[in-house]
Amino acid sequence: MKVGLVGFGSSGKSSVFSALTGSPPQTGKGAVSSTRVPDQRIDALADMWQPRKTTYAEIVFVDYTVGSFGRGSGALSPAILAEMRTLDVLAEVADAFSGGEDGAVGDIDSFRDELLLSDLAVVESRLGRLARQKGDDREEALLRRCLEALEESRELRLLDLSEAENEALLGFGFLSLKPRIIVANFAESEAGGGHEKIDAKAKALGLEAVCMSAPIEYEISRLDADERTEFLEELGLKAVASDRFVAACYRLLD
Questions:
Q1: How far apart, in whole angstroms, are the C-alpha atoms of residue 112 and residue 122?
Q2: How large is the angle between the packed helices 214-221 and 225-235, nearest 10 degrees?
């Protein structure tokens, strides 16, 4: 599973990348790391059979910087869009440390608008080509459904599509059709607090949300198991962010 950390500039993507992978902070776009998927079933089987090697599933994280434009400008670079289309899951990092929950909610709305605008441009371009070439009527009808949804600010993942229709749309790389998770990055002082506005926004959009403080989570990732458990209890957290994130990914992709 290939997960891309995307979002506006200065939202803390690189810090979140380190927190989720346990890798030291890296600078620049395109850092890649993987983390194993915790699975109690595998642990139980390994304890039972004592194999020479135990192999867990892995998630590959890629740190993408979508920060070459102002919020709401409609200017996602073609290169970033192309890279985002190769991902299995978009992990949208929202800045909740500088502007609090309200700022993060605003970023979530703005980023969603960028995805809708990108998909709208693709649909309009393809429909124009079909009109000139007198293409497939079924494809045109499906794209017109997509056009109607996008013009009404509805993401394509919320359309009631058949399996065949989903397959027909895969080649377009529509970003609002991709599974998406919100990662709200909070200040250290709010690591274990309630995050009602983020949870409400995610629910309204039909998305999963993982709230975390990236610097704290990175430090937790470097502790041994006993110290980690004690630290989590002090913060009022049930699990480390990486485990919560992996669980959200697997729920999202069924």
A1: 16
A2: 150
Phi, psi for residue 85 in degrees, rounded to 5: -70, -15
Work out the number of other CB atoms within 10 angstroms of the CB of residue 90. Answer: 22
**Alpha-carbon torsion (246, 247, 252, 254), positive or negative:** positive
Task: Determine whether 109 is exposed, middle or buried from the number of CB atoms within 10 Å of its CB (0-12, 13-18, 19+).
Answer: middle
Q: Pick the closest to residue 185 from 110, 107, 96 (CA basis).
A: 96
In terms of Cβ atoms closer than 10 Å to its own Cβ (0-12, 13-18, 19+), residue 145 is: middle
Tell me: the pLDDT tens digits for 117-151? 999 999 999 999 988 887 778 999 999 999 999 99
The highest-confidence range among 23-37, 81-95, 153-167, 184-198, by mean pLDDT, is: 153-167
* CB-facing half-sphere around the CA of 188: CA atoms within 13 A: 7
Q: Is the pTM of this model over 0.70?
A: yes
